[in-house]
Amino acid sequence: MSETRSHLLVEPRETPGVRYERRPVRGPDGHPVEDLFDVWIHLDNPDQLNSYTTEMVKGVILAFRRASEERDVNCVVFTGTGTRAFCTGGNTQEYAEVYAGRPAEYARYMRLFNDMVTAILHCDRPVICRVNGMRIAGGQEIGMACDFSVASDLAVFGQAGPKHGSAPDGGSTDFLPLFVGIERAMQSCTLCETWTAHQALRYGLLTSIAPALAVDGRHVANPLVVTDRPVDEWGREVLGERKTGAALAEGRALLARGRVDLGPLDDAVAALSTRLLLTMPGCLSKTLESLRKHKLAHWDRNRETNRAWLALNMMTEARLGFRAFHEGPRGRREVDFVELRRRLARGEAWGETLIEALIPRATAASAAAAPAPGART
Q1: What does the domain layout of the chain look like in residue ranges?
Q2: pLDDT in tens, 64-87
Q3: Closest to 264 (Cα-Cα) out of 180, 155, 140
Q4: Looking at residue 239, what is its pLDDT?
Q5: Which of 140, 157, 163 has the alpha carbon at shortest distance from 209?
Q6: How many other β-carbons are positioned within 10 Å of the β-carbon of residue 21?
Q7: Rounded CA gap, 267 and 270, in Å?
């Protein structure tokens, strides 16, 4: 065997909130292949919907670099722990308590975030995003940096920026138009209205979806969305849209009877890994690099100016939005947008007085019902 060198910048280490796992690749016969592996990189912060902290961002960067270096790796699977979320973006508790009002610190954080997206785009192996639940905000952005996305059909997709004081300039304004076209990208990024997995598949955002709800021993399609007809009586395309009225009530009842089982999702990810295994590795890598150039052309052109704007925005709308999300009661984590616009139209200056006046405050009852802070819901 020829002598080799390690090209890692640092020796592998465990990072809280990021789990690195090697799993045997399945061959065409479905059995493990000797001496070949897939690397699974888990965002492991399920109590906060796998939102990434600063330390987790560092861990993801190192994990992708490590996966590129290991010569026996077929592909990388990027996923989250649990069944609720792949990732809901940056940890808003940290944003509110550490970065709000401190643009220089947030600029340093955004340097790391940009490096995380770049690490995914530069990975020397194919990257599959295994979407085990919500893929929202920055979670959507790091998911789109991956080469493939295979999702639970219970997953939802979307942005949160303009609703919470930011802009989706960590990748969505660069990548989303490439997937779904400018009109749908405009709708998602500005209105922050989520898509179902069935819609995301139809729009071109996903490679495939898999059923995740098991009821009475069998898997069924997401009962909250329309899956049995492409159009309504007016000819409007409704496949994948959320049900309403009595149909929605029936769907919720069926959902309550079942349990989430991600076995079919794992089978779909393994099947895609096997298909990638059955290619020439060098030709596959070059093809990935060529196709990634379309994302990188936008990402490399915009990421530094976006970083600078996002940092400065921590003095104004982000400072308000992230604090409101972190400090506000459940169900009231957005500011009064109308009042904000009125105050700004009257010439009121940004400052602590304006921010304190617009942060929604919890009552004793709502505070008791609030979930753990740190993630967008």
Answers
A1: 18-212+262-312, 315-369
A2: 999 999 999 999 999 999 999 999
A3: 155
A4: 84
A5: 157
A6: 13
A7: 5
Model pLDDT, residue 5: 84
Torsion of CA 127, 132, 137, 139, to 10 degrees: -30
Whats the size of the chain, residue-wise?
377
Cα(205)–Cα(215) distance, integer angstroms: 27
Instruction: Find the mean pLDDT for residues 217-239.
Output: 87
Name the pLDDT band for 377 (thresholds 50, 70, 90).
very low
Does residue 129 have a pLDDT over 60? yes
> Quick one: pLDDT at residue 233?
74
Distance set, CA 343 to CA 286, 313, 319, 327 (Å) = 54, 18, 16, 21
For residues 180 and 188, is the Cβ–Cβ distance under 8 A?
yes
Q: Coil, strand, or helix at residue 253? A: helix
Per-residue pLDDT band for 373 (boundaries 50, 70, 90) equals: low
Instruction: Determine which helix (DSSP H) or strand (DSSP E) holds 364, and give its type and residue range.
Output: helix 364-369
Could you tell me the two tokens for 328? Answer: 């506000």
Contact (Cβ atoms closer than 8 angstroms) between residue 106 and residue 311: yes
Instruction: Give mean pLDDT, residues 110-136.
Output: 98
Q: Which two tokens stand for residue 118?
A: 């770049």
Beta bridge partners of 32: 26
What are the φ/ψ torsions at residue 328 (nearest 5 degrees)? -75, 160
DSSP codes, 38-107 = EEEEEE--GGGTTPBPHHHHHHHHHHHHHHHH-TTEEEEEEEESSSSEEE-SB-HHHIIIIITT-HHHHH
Is-contact 112 161, C-beta < 8 A?
no
Please determine, for residue 293, whether its predicted confidence score (pLDDT) is greater than 60. yes
Class of the CATH domain delimited by 18-212+262-312: alpha beta
DSSP character string of 272-313? HHHHHHTS-HHHHHHHHHHHHHHHHHHHHHHHHHHHHHHHHG
Distances from the Cα of 42 to the Cαs of 52, 114, 225, 291, in angstroms? 11, 19, 28, 25
Reported as type and span, the H/E element at residue 206 is none
